[in-house]
Amino acid sequence: MKLQKYLTCTAALFFCLCLAGAGLAESIISGHYSSKTPTRLILEINIGSPAPENLIVIQHVPPGTAVANASPALKKYNKKKGEIRWLLRNVQAGTLRLQLTLQTPVNPDMVHAEIRCKNPASRQMITTTVR
């Protein structure tokens, strides 16, 4: 009986901690596309306070997609995988906008982004997906 009660309490605590961690990630970073057309993507990232030191943003597009322009300048583009990367250093709390113009039109439903950073409090890496 004691073992069952212990396991129940442990499972409940684990569940609460998982929910708390998920909520914390959303308060540190979140994002949405303010524009998502076949040739233009604008990703707006909301950064909470305290802000993480750096952000890694990975924009996924269909493999082989040609990029015409990126602002800010992209760090790396793996055309075979369709992964466009930015490394944004010393970010501040507020809204950050990434703009991408594509030479090759894509289906907007085929793109998504990942935003990665270290939680300023726990130093654990967190990832937020934007569709």
Largest sheet: 5 strands, antiparallel
How helical, in percent, are the residues?
10-25%
CATH fold title: Immunoglobulin-like
Task: Supply Rg.
Answer: 18 Å
Mean pLDDT: 87
The CATH class label is Mainly Beta
Total domain count: 1
Model regions low in confidence, pLDDT < 50 over at least 5 residues:
9-25
* Element string (H = helix, E = strand): HEEEEEEEEE
- What would you call the structural class? alpha+beta
> What is the annotated CATH architecture?
Sandwich
CATH superfamily: Immunoglobulins
Shape: elongated
Total E-strand runs: 9
Beta fraction:
over 45%
Strand line-up in the sheet with most strands: 5-6-3-8-9
Q: What is the count of DSSP helices, taking H or I runs of 4+ residues?
A: 1
User: What distance separates the N and C termini?
Assistant: 46 Å
